[in-house]
Amino acid sequence: MRFVNPIPFVRDIARSRAFYETRLGLRVLEDFGSFVLFETGFAIHDGSALEKTIWGEASATEQAYGRRNMLLYFEDQDIDAAFARIAPHVDLIHPVERQAWGQRVFRFYDPDGHAVEIGEPQIMGEAE
């Protein structure tokens, strides 16, 4: 068995697709309407459609799917350029900060309130 990827539920698939394409620069590999798979293996799914598939019906709530209980992690070779490109367009959690393990990251919320982290690539075993 191997883990493939998480699939966040989203309220508006078009809005979320545009967000991940425009803000993070991800390229779409396949768009199935209610499910979008990006070249990196990251995917998003229309929440209402996925709720119906899994549980047989969609929830009546309009509450955001992001609940501060999961972090979507991405890397960028130039963390400062990524921050400059993304930060003005998102609800920022914090700017670029060096973490205890030496990596520089910044965090923000996507349109559904999912926490997203962008970090500089880190070679395992080489924390500063």
Q: What CATH architecture would you give?
A: Roll
Q: Into how many domains do the coordinates divide?
A: 1
Biggest β-sheet: count, sense, barrel? 4 strands, mixed
- C-alpha-based Rg, rounded: 16 Å
CATH fold field value: 2,3-Dihydroxybiphenyl 1,2-Dioxygenase, domain 1
The averaged pLDDT comes out at 93
| Count of individual beta strands | 8
CATH class: Alpha Beta
Write structural notes for this entry.
The structure is a single chain. The protein has 128 residues and is of the alpha/beta class. The protein has a single domain, classed as 2,3-Dihydroxybiphenyl 1,2-Dioxygenase, domain 1. It is 21% helix and 30% strand. It is built from 3 helices and 8 strands. It has helices at 13-22, 47-55, 79-86; strands at 9-10, 28-31, 35-38, 43-46, 71-75, 91-98, 104-109, 115-119. The protein has a 4-stranded mixed β-sheet with strand order 1-4-3-2. A 4-stranded mixed β-sheet has the order 5-8-7-6, covered by helices on one side. Strand 2 and strand 3 form a beta hairpin. The relative contact order is 0.19. The mean pLDDT is 93.
Defining traits:
128 residues, alpha/beta, 4-stranded mixed beta sheet, 30% strand, globular
Please specify the SSE layout and strand pairing.
Elements: E1 9-10, H1 13-22, E2 28-31, E3 35-38, E4 43-46, H2 47-55, E5 71-75, H3 79-86, E6 91-98, E7 104-109, E8 115-119
Parallel strand pairs: 1-4, 5-8
Antiparallel strand pairs: 2-3, 3-4, 6-7, 7-8
